[in-house]
Amino acid sequence: MSVEENKTIVRRYFAGAYADDGEALVDELLAPDYVGRFPPNPDVVGQDAIKQFNRETRSAFPDLKLTLDEFIAEGDRVVVRWTMRGTHLGEMRGGIAPTGKPFTVTGTTTNRIVGGKIAEAWGSIDLLGLMLQLGLVTPPGQPPR
Asked: For every one of its 145 residues, what pLDDT tens digit does the chain have, with 9 covering 90 and above?
């Protein structure tokens, strides 16, 4: 596959991963043995696992919007720099109760494409920024809430 074809695969997945039809995109664009690495979460292995991961994300942030800010691609790798916006309206992983607070965070995901499908992904998100915006941690130098 060409670099441009790889970028198109990743763009399509990211544009719709958290939409109502996102599970169909998983079947179409992710390898059956897909592995996602999104610390601090455990590895997400397989299509069913990423579908569950995405459902949990949508449940916690039902108004989630993902903006794709930049693509960098070479060979079988496509890196996406993105911005995520939403409101914490459902339980987050780890049993974190909804705060009702809005957030905007940035992150990057490196995707490896094999045979026209995303086979692996390594994600990084500004988790501290998210926790601060949701009021789940106290900023340095401020009294605890």
From this structure: 899 999 999 999 998 888 877 899 999 999 999 999 999 999 999 999 999 999 999 999 999 999 999 999 999 999 999 999 999 999 998 899 999 999 999 999 999 999 999 999 999 999 999 999 999 998 888 776 6
Contacts with 54 (C-beta within 8 Å, 6 or more apart), sequence order: 17, 18, 22, 23, 26
Q: Where are the alpha helices (DSSP H) in the chain?
A: 3-16, 22-29, 47-60, 127-133
Return the residue matching tokens 């763009």. 11
What gap in Å lies between CA 139 and CA 141, rounded to an integer? 6
Strands 30-37 and 44-45: antiparallel
